[in-house]
């Protein structure tokens, strides 16, 4: 008979140790620096302006965690960190981790208060303001947030571009488009499509710059608007990625209804999120994301695929189905 051990409890309770080591490495631009060339302890200590007391433990902790390699005293990136954490690489996803380091890390420190009060825990006013409107008011915070949204969604966006039956449609609209990464990946994969990125006026410059960088300005254009106030662009396919989870039930239903109204007969709505599994036992990331909405928003929460299908069907959609994308993300496809 095996005797229970406390290892998993301790590892989870102290998981912030390893998390903060990775976030600090990103903050120091360690992975970008090592992308230029491997380096030994002394060189990295000098280049990153580290104190000798903690430098070796810090770097070797990253080795033991599998985020760095060390050969004959030379530290270098792993294949994974070279691809995703070098800010000069097009596959860089570090922006979401930068947001986590500077904003989410302290906010999650007040999770207990959020669970007891049901109120967001950000530092803006008394928590009654919408976190999104506050982020959008500050240029630096806006740029970081927009980049973070692209980083966290990039891989799933590629899956949508490959998996959805785009050959059956001609136009699409990406709602809450941010930098337009989803629209760009879809357009690059399917030259017959034209698309619209829909978001607030302040986001236009980020979208237009990214689209022009990919030479897609002839097929992708931007429409400014507030999706709670303005009509959604009409298109054969409407995409809502990581949008619905930020709002309460009433606003979720309102956005679904607006999408239904903007689609033609036979048109499709694609909702993708870190969908919680229907039994609420397996997709830990989806459940934690819902807690993130608790500490960040007034009424946002994540949901199961079954929940989403029921809301879509209540709005008039038919033929709903769920497809896994990657990691914790899945998409719900509904036909009008």
Structure description:
This protein has 336 residues and is α/β, with parallel strands linked by helices. The chain folds into 2 domains: 7-84, Arc Repressor Mutant, subunit A (Orthogonal Bundle), CATH 1.10.10.10; 152-335, Vaccinia Virus protein VP39 (Rossmann fold, 3-Layer(aba) Sandwich), CATH 3.40.50.150. 49% of the residues lie in helices and 16% in strands. It contains 15 helices and 10 strands. The chain has helices at residues 7-13, 15-27, 30-36, 41-47, 52-64, 79-84, 94-108, 111-117, 131-137, 139-163, 181-189, 204-213, 249-262, 284-296, 305-314, and strands at residues 39-40, 68-71, 74-77, 171-175, 194-199, 220-224, 237-241, 268-273, 318-326, 329-335. A 7-stranded mixed β-sheet has the order 6-5-4-7-8-10-9, with helices on both faces. Strands 1-3-2 form a 3-stranded antiparallel β-sheet. α7 (94-108) packs across α10 (139-163). The longest helix has 25 residues, at 139-163.
Quick structural summary:
This protein has helices at residues 7-13, 15-27, 30-36, 41-47, 52-64, 79-84, 94-108, 111-117, 131-137, 139-163, 181-189, 204-213, 249-262, 284-296, 305-314; strands at residues 39-40, 68-71, 74-77, 171-175, 194-199, 220-224, 237-241, 268-273, 318-326, 329-335. With 336 residues, it is α/β, with parallel strands linked by helices. The protein has two domains: 7-84, Arc Repressor Mutant, subunit A, CATH 1.10.10; 152-335, 3-Layer(aba) Sandwich (Rossmann fold), CATH 3.40.50.150.
How are the strands of the biggest sheet laid out side by side?
6-5-4-7-8-10-9
Major sheet characteristics:
7 strands, mixed
Low-confidence stretches: none
Anisotropy-based shape: globular
Written as H for each helix and E for each strand, in order along the chain, the element string is HHHEHHEEHHHHHEHEHEEHEHHEE
How much of the sequence is in beta strands?
Answer: 15-25%
Helix content: 40-55%
CATH topology grouping of the largest domain: Rossmann fold
Q: Which CATH C-level class of the largest domain is it?
A: Alpha Beta
| Estimated structural class | alpha/beta
The number of helical runs is: 15
Radius of gyration: 22 Å
């Amino acid at each position: 008979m095996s005797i229970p051990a406390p290892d998993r409890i301790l590892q989870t309770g102290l998981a912030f140790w390893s998390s903060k080591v990775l976030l600090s490495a990103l903050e120091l631009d360690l992975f970008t620096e090592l992308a230029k060339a491997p380096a030994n302890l002394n060189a990295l200590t000098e280049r990153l302006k580290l104190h000798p007391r903690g430098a070796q433990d810090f770097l070797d902790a990253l080795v033991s965690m599998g985020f760095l390699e060390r050969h004959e005293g030379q530290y270098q990136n792993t294949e994974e960190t070279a691809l995703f954490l070098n800010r000069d690489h097009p596959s860089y996803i570090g922006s979401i981790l930068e947001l986590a380091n500077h904003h989410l890390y302290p906010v999650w420190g007040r999770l207990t208060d959020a669970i007891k009060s049901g109120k967001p825990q950000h530092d803006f006013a008394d928590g009654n303001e919408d976190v999104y409107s506050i982020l959008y008011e500050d240029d630096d915070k806006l740029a970081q947030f927009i980049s973070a949204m692209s980083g966290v969604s990039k891989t799933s966006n590629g899956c949508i571009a490959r998996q959805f039956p785009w050959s059956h449609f001609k136009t699409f609209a990406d709602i809450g488009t941010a930098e337009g990464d989803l629209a760009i990946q879809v357009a690059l994969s399917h030259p017959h499509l034209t698309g619209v990125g829909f978001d607030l006026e302040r986001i236009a410059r980020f979208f237009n710059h990214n689209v022009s960088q990919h030479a897609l300005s002839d097929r992708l254009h931007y429409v400014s608007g507030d999706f709670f106030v303005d009509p959604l662009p009409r298109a054969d396919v409407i995409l809502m990625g990581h949008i619905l989870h930020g709002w309460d039930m009433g606003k979720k239903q309102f956005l679904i209804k607006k999408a239904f109204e903007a689609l033609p007969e036979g048109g499709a709505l694609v909702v993708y999120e870190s969908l919680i599994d229907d039994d609420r036992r397996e997709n830990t990331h989806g459940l934690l994301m819902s807690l993130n909405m608790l500490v960040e928003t007034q009424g946002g929460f994540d949901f199961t695929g079954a929940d989403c299908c029921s809301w879509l069907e209540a709005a008039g959609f038919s033929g709903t189905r769920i497809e896994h994308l990657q990691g914790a993300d899945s998409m719900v496809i509904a036909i009008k």
